[in-house]
């Protein structure tokens, strides 16, 4: 059982927006900002999309955005494209537990 | 462009030690403030952080694996390594090495190597 809870699956049509949640507690997500998001297409290594809640590495399209409210962090993908179909993982670093990942969310583009 | 490549046996017997090496090109593991990390993914499952070695040589391990894990570095070869002792079938996974400028923020990843624990 993952320390961070993500929905197993989400879906959306091309051009739409989807949001993937990552829920923890007041002791982890609610207290720390070292939240990252990764995209993992089938059979490939994860790719960093977002770090420190809402920062994008260079080269990541601005269709991908991150946010946090209370004990829940979120990844929003706007203008969905077929190539966005993948598994998405959140992660959190805390100084007492190290790095924990969410269970992952499978995004299907309809 | 930084590149990482995992190498090691794809099959390990139960109770033995899993040993993997990550070769880094395009950057030195001994310069800059990076955390050289290992992450694994059980077949069809999510990601699990194993630990890191900092460029200074300090290490930090997942508490759930700490008693069995050792991460070390060979700066002369620009490599870092993972050893996981007393393996069982539950350690069967794809093992990734990665570079992290911040702990838990991995910006470059290896392609991953599948390690199967079986007799």
List the helices and strands and how they pair.
The complex is a heterodimer of chains A (110) and B (119).
Chain A: E1 9-12, E2 18-23, E3 35-40, E4 47-50, E5 64-69, E6 72-77, E7 86-94, E8 98-101, E9 105-109
Parallel strand pairs in A: 1-9
Antiparallel strand pairs in A: 2-6, 3-4, 3-7, 5-6, 7-8, 7-9
Chain B: E1 3-7, E2 11-12, E3 18-25, E4 35-41, E5 47-54, E6 59-61, E7 69-74, E8 79-84, E9 93-100, E10 108-109, E11 113-117
Parallel strand pairs in B: 2-11
Antiparallel strand pairs in B: 1-3, 3-8, 4-5, 4-9, 5-6, 7-8, 9-10, 9-11
Give an overview in words:
The complex is a heterodimer of chains A (110) and B (119). Chain A is mostly beta strands and 110 residues long. Chain A is built from no helices and 9 strands. In chain A, strands 1, 3, 4, 7, 8 and 9 form a 6-stranded mixed sheet that branches. In chain A, strand 5 (64-69) and strand 6 form a beta hairpin. The N and C termini of chain A lie far apart (29 Å). In chain A, 36% of the residues are buried. Chain B has 119 residues and is mostly beta strands. In chain B, 0% of the residues lie in helices and 50% in strands. Chain B has strands at residues 3-7, 11-12, 18-25, 35-41, 47-54, 59-61, 69-74, 79-84, 93-100, 108-109, 113-117. In chain B, the strands form 2 sheets. In chain B, strands 2, 4, 5, 6, 9, 10 and 11 form a 7-stranded mixed sheet that branches. In chain B, a hairpin with a 5-residue loop joins strand 4 (35-41) and strand 5. Chain B is globular, with a radius of gyration of 13 Å.
Structural class of chain A: mainly beta
Instruction: Indicate the radius of gyration of chain B in whole angstroms.
Output: 13 Å
Q: What does the overall shape of chain A look like?
A: globular
3D shape of chain B:
globular
């Amino acid at each position: 059982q993952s320390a961070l809870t993500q929905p197993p699956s989400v879906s959306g049509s091309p051009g739409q927006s989807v949001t993937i949640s990552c829920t923890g507690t007041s002791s982890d997500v609610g207290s720390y900002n070292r939240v990252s998001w990764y995209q993992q297409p089938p059979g490939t290594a994860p790719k960093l999309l977002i770090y420190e809640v809402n920062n994008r590495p260079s080269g990541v399209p601005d269709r991908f955005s991150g946010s946090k409210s209370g004990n829940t962090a979120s990844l929003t993908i706007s203008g969905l494209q077929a190539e966005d179909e993948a598994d998405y993982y959140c992660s959190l670093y805390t100084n007492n537990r190290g790095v924990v990942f969410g269970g992952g969310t499978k995004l299907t583009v309809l | 462009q930084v590149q990482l490549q995992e190498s090691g046996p794809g099959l390990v017997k139960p109770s033995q030690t899993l040993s993997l090496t990550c070769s880094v090109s395009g950057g030195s593991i001994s310069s800059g403030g990076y955390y050289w990390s290992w992450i694994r993914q059980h077949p069809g499952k999510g990601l699990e952080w194993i630990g890191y070695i900092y460029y200074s040589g300090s290490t930090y391990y997942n508490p759930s694996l700490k008693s069995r894990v050792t991460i070390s570095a060979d700066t002369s070869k620009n490599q870092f390594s993972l050893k996981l002792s007393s393996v069982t079938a539950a350690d069967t996974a794809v093992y990734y090495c990665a570079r992290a400028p911040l702990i838990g923020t991995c910006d470059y990843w290896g392609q991953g190597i599948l390690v199967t624990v079986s007799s």
